[in-house]
């Protein structure tokens, strides 16, 4: 059942090219996005003035990444909330808005409660859900299924990757109908999304270097992940993967926040992972990496092929293929998933069933 892999997590990591391919294939027909199955019309997208994204855990991290993409591409405000916060803060939901609930299981208690709250207030809900017929899928007004297939490992990988794709497709279609991108850009962005499965595969092919590095750092006590913008969203998920299955304390920080407190934690030998996929933020994050290095941190740099000057600063560098910057999360997350996995294996932990955690959190 594990298809020759030692753990479900490793199997699911390797299923990502297919999961992404299947999700793209479900909604892209002849080079255009088709949301008929979702029930979402161009008319509805055109009238949208605000988007609220609500989710928990990794699905929330998808929302964090999606906000940068949606706001920049579609030019409407996007708010992202943890479901457990949203439901208790009496949120202000404006007309002509939509609430997007992202959930692999479709059964997460707080996410479901957030969905019900939105509906009570008369705001339509778009569910981005993996499990067919789950509660969130049934109660959503629009349903965009991800095609990851069953995910067994508690740590999500392939569902997360397909959720990202769902948000890209939504952004590209909304941008088209709202006229914030032209037809050529629309076609190009879709074509780029279609290259992602191949590029994810290429990233997976480099896994041995990550495995080697992970075994070296398996005894680390703390790991910090830093990045700005989309790279911050990637850092959040990288950090969660690490702590959830390897039990190493890890934190993600918006790189610009380091100086506001966190940098006092940096001491000799602490591992700091810098994520740098966004050109306009590269130098900024790099200078934060220089700062922590001068305080003794050991640096891993995660960037795209071509940015070889990272090696002047980072002690260990990992490269992912180039893609449209909006979609960088899909590639940069792969080495971080592998790192969490291999650290957990090196420590001899129960990778697929980490202590204290359940696959789907159906109680508050
Ligand atoms: O089923 P859901 O997507 O609603 O689950 C949300 C979180 O519980 C989930 O993403 C959790 O954070 C994962 N274990 C992270 O790997």
TrEMBL record:
Active-site annotation: 359 (for fru-6p isomerization activity)
Keywords carried by this UniProt record: Aminotransferase, Cytoplasm, Glutamine amidotransferase, Repeat, Transferase
Cellular compartment(s): Cytoplasm
E.C. number(s) listed in UniProt: 2.6.1.16
Tree of life domain: Bacteria
Catalytic activity: D-fructose 6-phosphate + L-glutamine = D-glucosamine 6-phosphate + L-glutamate
GO terms for MF: glutamine-fructose-6-phosphate transaminase (isomerizing) activity
Assembly and oligomerization: Homodimer.
The protein, known as: Glutamine--fructose-6-phosphate aminotransferase [isomerizing]
Organism, scientific name: Ruminococcus turbiniformis
Range within the parent protein: 249 to 612 of 612
């Amino acid at each position: 059942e594990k298809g020759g892999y030692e753990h479900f997590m490793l199997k699911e990591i390797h299923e990502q090219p297919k999961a992404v391919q299947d999700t793209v294939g479900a909604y892209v027909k002849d080079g255009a996005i088709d949301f008929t199955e979702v029930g979402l019309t161009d008319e509805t997208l055109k009238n949208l003035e605000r988007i609220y994204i609500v989710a928990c855990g990794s699905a929330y991290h998808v929302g964090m990444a999606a906000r940068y993409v949606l706001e920049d591409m579609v030019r409407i405000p996007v708010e992202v909330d943890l479901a457990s916060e949203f439901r208790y803060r009496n949120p202000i939901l404006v007309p002509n808005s939509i609430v997007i609930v992202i959930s692999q299981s479709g059964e997460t208690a707080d996410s479901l409660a957030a969905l019900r709250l939105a509906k009570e207030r008369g705001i339509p809900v778009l569910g981005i859900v993996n499990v067919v017929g789950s509660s969130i899928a049934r109660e959503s007004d629009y349903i965009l299924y991800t095609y990851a297939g069953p995910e067994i490992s508690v740590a999500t990988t392939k569902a997360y990757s397909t959720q990202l794709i769902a948000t890209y497709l939504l952004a590209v279609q909304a941008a088209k109908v709202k006229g914030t991108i032209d037809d050529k850009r629309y076609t190009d962005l879709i074509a780029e999304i279609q290259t992602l499965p191949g590029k994810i595969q290429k990233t997976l092919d480099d896994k041995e270097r990550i495995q080697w590095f992970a075994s070296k750092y398996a005894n680390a006590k703390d790991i910090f992940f830093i990045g700005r913008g989309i790279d911050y969203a990637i850092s959040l998920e990288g950090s969660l993967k690490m702590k959830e299955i390897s039990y190493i304390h890890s934190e993600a920080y918006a790189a610009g926040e380091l100086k506001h407190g966190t940098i006092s934690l940096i001491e000799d030998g602490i591992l700091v992972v810098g994520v740098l996929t966004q050109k306009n933020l590269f130098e900024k994050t790099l200078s934060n990496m220089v700062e922590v290095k001068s305080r003794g941190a050991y640096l891993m740099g995660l960037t795209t092929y071509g940015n070889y000057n990272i090696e002047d600063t980072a002690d260990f560098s990992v490269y992912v293929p180039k893609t449209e910057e909006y979609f960088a999360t899909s590639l940069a997350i792969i080495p971080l998933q592998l790192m969490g996995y291999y650290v957990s294996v090196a420590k001899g932990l129960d990778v697929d069933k980490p202590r204290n955690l359940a696959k789907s959190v159906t109680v508050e």
